[in-house]
Amino acid sequence: MEPKFENVQTDNESSFCSLWFSCARLADDHTWHYHPEFELSWIVRSAGTRFVGDSIERYEPNDLVLLGPNLPHCWHDETDLGAQEHGSEAVVLQFRPESFGGDFLGLPELAPINRLFRASKCGLHIQGETAARVQGSMKSIFRKTGLERLLGLLEILQVMAQAPNDLRSLASADYHITNDITETNRQRIEFIHRYVRQNLGREVSQSEIATLVGLTPPAFSRFFRKATGQTFVGFVNILRINEVCRLLMESEEGITDIAMNCGYNNIANFNRQFLALKGMNPTQFREQRSRILDRPPVQAVGADMQRKPHPNRISMASSAE
Hints:
Blueprint: E1 4-5, E2 17-23, H1 26-29, E3 33-34, E4 38-45, E5 48-52, E6 55-59, E7 63-67, E8 73-77, E9 88-95, H2 102-105, H3 111-119, E10 124-126, H4 128-141, H5 146-161, E11 167-169, H6 183-198, H7 206-212, H8 217-228, H9 232-250, H10 255-261, H11 267-278, H12 282-293, H13 297-300
Parallel strand pairs: 1-3
Antiparallel strand pairs: 2-9, 4-7, 4-9, 5-6, 5-8, 7-10, 10-11
Helix pairs in contact: 3-5, 4-5, 7-8
Keywords: DNA-binding, Transcription, Transcription regulation
Domain HTH araC/xylS-type: 190-288
Protein name: AraC family transcriptional regulator
């Protein structure tokens, strides 16, 4: 994709940046962008689609992600979320490795954190009890100053480094950004995302989108694959399944009706696509989410939350290269 460079400014009398903010919509506040700093982002209040490199996934409140340097990313809220009274809320920490000093990071005791840094080049989704601990520590950063504040950041990194089973890789291993960043291509991708989201209930063809962005179908196909790492058909399918998941959680509407309203006229194909992306069928997804949402909030992100092994689970021991 063609991301926009973001210039990160450190806080006064600090070696890193900490932000706790609210906005009408994350998609409007931060478009597809990258920066040379590591970023730890906690989406306190918002739900929608998260883009990290070539990873496209649905996110929900309390989404927590660690991003490596120069990894393009953005969060697109649900269409109607900005109309809510409080909008979106996020806590973000941005820092460079040199915040700790090169010699310091070379110490043997810092080896787990260095492995964490290397694993974060593709983005890491932090889950379970680790997410709950990190979120609590991120809050406390805003009450600290001086060395205590820097040690607070180091403590957060150590918590993540010691819990590889709660870390899941997002972008593919060979993903990297190109140097030919242009405003035109960035705007194209953002337009395509909005247009597809607004028209999920009908067939949106590649030739239709190509015309709208001023490209021939073959040129559009090459552009889109290079920009997102996805085929256009695959991209549309991901957004449709994400919308199905939202409706499965938020409504009592029948699964067949939800699928058809999201553009699936062939239910057998819908079931195959859902299983391929979510690892379970729609009925199992709805039942699983209902069990999780019925639990007290602390348990929902704590050690009692049951999760199946994910193919992108990180092994910190094997990520040293």
